Amino acid sequence: MGSENSMSSGSPALDRLVERLGSTTDPKRRYEYVLWLAKKLEPLPDELRQDHYKVKGCVSQVYVVGTLQDGTLHWRGDSDAAITKGLLALLMEGLEGLTPQQAAALDPAILTATGLQASLTPSRANGFLNILRAMQAQAVRLAAPAEA
């Protein structure tokens, strides 16, 4: 195993996903798992496919919509590319139920512990980070009215 799995994200769900992906040495199995996550994602209604929910810097079309209910985050999203949709699903599951502060504090380095970077093209790996950053930015915006 090693030290990469000892890194905690502060999200038990994300830690489980990272551990599951990081524990396999087979890139094909990682890919299959990401594609399986994509298939589980619920369709995003057309009215939420707005420019301000679109993730910037992704080659594919990616939308992610965060809402804050009782102090915790809930996510919906979609992508037109299967792998990107799976990466989005992974992050949505990992950040579900966190407080905005927990989501904003996530270290993007946790993503390297998944081992996915080795299997992804540079643009997809970059897209993975862009999705996380977009979710963190939304979390911060959603928390702002509560703190004002």
Overview of this protein structure:
The protein has helices spanning 12-22, 27-40, 82-95, 100-105, 122-147; strands spanning 62-69, 72-79. By secondary structure, it is mainly α. The protein has a single domain (7-147), classed as Alpha-Beta Complex (Sufe protein. Chain: A). The protein has a two-stranded antiparallel sheet. A hairpin with a 2-residue loop joins strand 1 (62-69) and strand 2. Helix 3 runs parallel beside helix 5 (122-147). It is globular and about 45 Å long. The termini are far apart.
CATH architecture: Alpha-Beta Complex
CATH class: Alpha Beta
Question: How many strand units?
Answer: 2
Shape: globular
According to CATH, the fold-level topology is: Sufe protein. Chain: A
Count of domains: 1
Strand order of the largest sheet: 1-2
Distance between the termini: 44 Å
Largest sheet, in brief, is: 2 strands, antiparallel
Please indicate the percent range of residues in DSSP E strands (runs of 2 or more).
5-15%
Helix count, DSSP H or I runs of 4 or more residues: 5
Mean pLDDT across every amino acid position: 89
Rounded to an integer, what's the Rg over CA atoms? 15 Å
Sheet/helix structural class: mainly alpha
What is the ordering of alpha helices and beta strands?
Answer: HHEEHHH
Low-confidence parts = 1-6
- The helix content is 40-55%
